[in-house]
Write a structure and sequence with these properties.
With about 425 residues, the protein is α+β, with helices and mostly antiparallel strands. It has 13 helices and 21 strands. Strands 1, 4, 5, 6, 8, 9, 10, 11 and 12 form a nine-stranded mixed sheet that branches. Strands 15-17-16-19-14-18 form a six-stranded antiparallel sheet, with helices on both faces. β4 and β5 (about 95-105) form a beta hairpin. α4 packs across α7 (about 205-225).
């Protein structure tokens, strides 16, 4: 049973200035250049909390939060609330809207069968976020969860709430309009709690944050007096139904820094794929993937040539995949690319992130990285369907890292949750 609760959010006050100068992308999406840009926007920009420039970033974040609270730049709500959160954005020529719910959700270990991961995680990011939790004792950013709502109970609830005036409405630097509505009415809260109680939840974004929160919870339980209402038993989460029309997953393209398209490699690829020459342009490559989105399709670019790859040997490919799940269930593009193309054809070993393998969020960015000499090959993929992610995760199967890119990311800086030892929910 999923336990969601309202919480007394910490939010910016008017004293902090224009919200557009305060909000940021999630910490793991902030490049060095974007970090500098955020710092220049405002002395109160949220980047100064989630990704400070100081050597001891954890201590810097902790001191800033206390300072901003004491100065009245931030304040804690007197009444617990949950928040309806909406993003309006343009993608592929269409305006889309995604609406979800920001709540304090009880933390569940994966073995409890309530919350499921869909990607593998790494030690370093978890160590980083755990250190931040220890220092600030706040949930600075939500974990993004998806759930199924076939009866559209929560979707209809969101539609009703968003007809009202939002608490905050702000457009970010990427043209996404973010708005939140504050819900405190006990009857409305009961409707939501009942609707969510029997759900199974899959992490869309924030695997490292979620696992760090579990570790922090266990540490706090071991060293302090606590009960089931202690805030550190919960985490701030952004929850979106898979039936939400604006729930979009974009592909994350893979780039290899050392492999090359030799004649032998091309012959090996032809054993598994129908290989078609494609014009080496963003439009042509995107077009090929879009036309073949119902098939197992890829594109590869080496700086001068580009090819489309269509899987023709499904049985042979199934024998090579090693995804920890039934072959027919995990014959997914990202798995085929990893196990058939990378491991079997290219014979690459362990791929270290940012050393042997890079990632790109768009075809244009992928091509630019190859053209700029950062990588030798770009492999372009179609996105994974959100429903597929939800179904696979519940069977305790995990996709390769960076398999999904839920778009747009929830903005950081609108709400923060206190999880200090004395805080109760």
């Amino acid at each position: 049973m999923v336990d969601i609760r309202p919480f007394r959010a910490i939010r910016y006050t008017e004293k902090a200035g224009n919200p557009a100068a305060l909000i940021t992308r999630p910490y793991d999406k902030i490049s060095f250049a974007l970090q500098r840009e955020y710092y220049e926007k405002s002395v109160y920009n949220y980047c100064r909390l989630i990704l400070p420039v100081e050597n001891d970033k954890y201590e810097a974040a902790q001191q800033r939060i206390q300072k901003w609270l004491s100065e009245g730049v931030m304040s804690k709500d007197g009444e617990p609330a949950v928040f309806v959160s909406r993003q309006e954005f343009r993608l592929f020529g269409r305006v889309r809207v995604r609406t979800g719910l920001i709540v304090a959700m009880r933390l569940y270990s994966y073995g409890e069968g309530v919350v499921f991961p869909h990607e593998v995680t790494y030690k370093e990011p978890k160590t980083d976020r755990l250190s931040m939790l220890r220092a600030v004792q706040k949930d600075l950013e939500p974990v993004f969860l998806i759930y199924s709502d076939p009866e559209k109970v929560t979707i209809d609830f969101f539609a009703e709430v968003t007809r009202e005036q939002p608490l905050v409405e702000v457009e970010d630097a990427f043209g996404v309009k973010h708005a939140i509505w504050r819900i405190t009415d006990p009857e409305r809260l009961k409707i939501l709690q009942k609707a969510i109680a029997d759900k199974r939840l899959v992490i869309g974004d924030g695997h490292h944050r979620y696992e760090s929160a579990l570790a922090y919870r266990d540490e706090m339980r071991a060293k302090s007096r606590w009960n089931e209402d202690s805030a550190f038993n919960f985490h701030m989460c952004y929850m979106v139904p898979v039936q939400e029309e604006g729930l979009v997953v974009l592909p994350t393209h893979r780039l290899l820094t050392e492999s090359k398209l030799t004649e032998d490699i091309m012959r090996a690829l032809e054993s598994f794929f129908t290989v078609v020459e494609v014009a080496p342009t963003v439009e042509a490559l995107d077009g090929f993937l879009r036309i073949h989105e119902k098939e197992h399709a890829f594109c590869v670019y080496d700086g001068s040539r580009a090819y489309g790859l269509l899987l023709k040997e499904k049985v042979l490919a199934s024998e090579l995949i090693n995804a920890g799940c039934p072959k027919e269930a995990c014959l997914l593009d990202v798995v085929i690319l990893r196990d058939v193309v990378f491991k079997h054809v290219l014979k690459v070993g362990e791929l270290k992130m940012d050393e042997h393998i890079l990632y790109a969020e768009s075809t244009r960015n992928a091509l630019e990285k190859v053209d700029g000499g950062q990588a030798n090959l770009a492999f372009l993929v179609n996105p994974v369907n959100p429903e597929t992610v939800w179904q696979i995760a519940q069977k305790n199967w995990r996709l390769p890292e960076k398999s999904t890119d839920f778009y747009p990311k929830p903005v950081s800086g609108l709400v923060m949750m206190d999880i200090s030892p004395e805080e109760k929910l």
